[in-house]
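Re: your question from the hallway

Yes, I did run it. Sequences:
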Amino acid sequence: MKKLINAVDDVVKEQLEGVAVAHPELTVKIGPHYVYRADAPVAGKVAVVSGGGSGHEPMHGGFVGMGMLAGACPGEVFTSPTPDQMYECAKAVDSGAGVLFLVKNYTGDVLNFETAAELAHADGIKVQNILVDDDVAVKDSLYTAGRRGVGTTVIMEKIVGAAAEAGKDLDACADLARKVNLMGRSMGMALTSCTVPAAGKPTFDLGENEMEIGIGIHGEPGQKRMAMTTADEITEMMMNEILDDKGYSRTVREWDREAGDWVDKHLTDEPYSEGDQFIVMVNSMGGTPVSELYAVYRKVDEMMKARGMTIARKLIGPYITSLEMAGCSITLVKADDELLGYWDAPVNTPGLRWGV
Amino acid sequence: MSVSKEQIVSWLKATADVMSENKTYLTELDSAIGDADHGINMNRGFSKVLEKLPTIEDSDIGNILKTTGMTLISTVGGASGPLYGTFFMRAGMALASKETLSNDDVYTMLNTGMEGVISRGRASVGDKTMIDAMMPAMAAFKNTLDNGGDLLAAMKACVQGAEQGMKDTIPLQAKKGRASYLGERSIGHQDPGATSSFLMLNMLLQALEA
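Structure:
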């Protein structure tokens, strides 16, 4: 293992200490770890909070700031953060308008954020949990823990963060987050594995002429292992899965503030069709250079034109990574004027900045 | 026979020891079908419990269990943290201010804990999870007590049920957690969560026998 680290046990802590000195506009707490806007709580505004295992930077800590997240809770590398982090973060950023937890669908993240929501609720904080589950590589939700939360998370954090900044209330922000999730679909692939510092060796072996299609963001196994091929063919394979995906359904658990208990909600994705417009993200898993992402984007653009679909906005670069893994993911979010309006709103974070 | 506070504390200490001894084993089981951190996470959590025990062992059993649950929730991470944390939190809440436990109290502790795990994790028997070890264990415990068996007989049956349930996860296809993404590839491997549940219950038997 060759990494720019000092001691394996201090990796996350020291990286956060670096964030703290680089970004005085953020407050970084160590033990329990959480990052939040230094100007939080912002009076009258909903606080959007996310979190997850570390190793996906700039997500989530790099998206804390005006117009996006109020706070983020980093876990150990690829390990869910714990409820005490989320609870402390919620207390630090809540203005009284409530806290919205955006949760990627992994069993650990879901259970820890649910526990945190119960703690926050018991403390009188208005709270809601919304899941992101957009990875089309996972086909069914009946016999698995359901689709994983991947690229749509970035787009959801931007859009819902803008709505919170605009003064929308907690229920409106939650509705918007749910809407983005039902409009979003992603697929990822790996050219190499990655090495979790604590493990010291690559999570899986991938031969020189092999690639793994349909991976998540933690080096978990993908849909299939295949012989290496061209950028065009790889892009086509992923885009077809995304564009042809039909009406994924799942039951999610959301918080009922009145009852103080969880309720099951049955949700189904919106289909894509000709004439739709999209926010598109072509994302690096960490090791793939931006130049190669543009080669992928070229094919994405060609395929969408052929289907009569419009790319209204795009994001190309490393936004939701998997340590040093080489590979990429493609995310499409079908966008109406409401979503595009929030997408275009000013944002000022270490990882995304425009309009300021 | 009633169970003393000291026996509960020694159960928790023994569980910390057994998680430390089995750190590599549990992690290996998890690397086959999960994300290779179960042993590391359980050991981290129970080491913290071990550190905390001297400050709470004079308190009542309900509080000792609740503090154990809170400690696990804030240190284990992953899915196991909230699941084992909930087990001890709910068990502790059901035994508030108790200084000793009757046979029925021991059943209440284990069964309420398990019900907490079920409501948190939404798993059923056959999903290849902790519940596959816990459910037959609690049923065997109750069955033995109902048929006039004493506490030790019930706890022995409980551990046997857990062990059988743990082994019975091998041919199952996982339907919950990260292992579920493997589909049929999860078949043939013993579930790490069911294994740590068996270890934990086995340590309670040892504490009661001592």
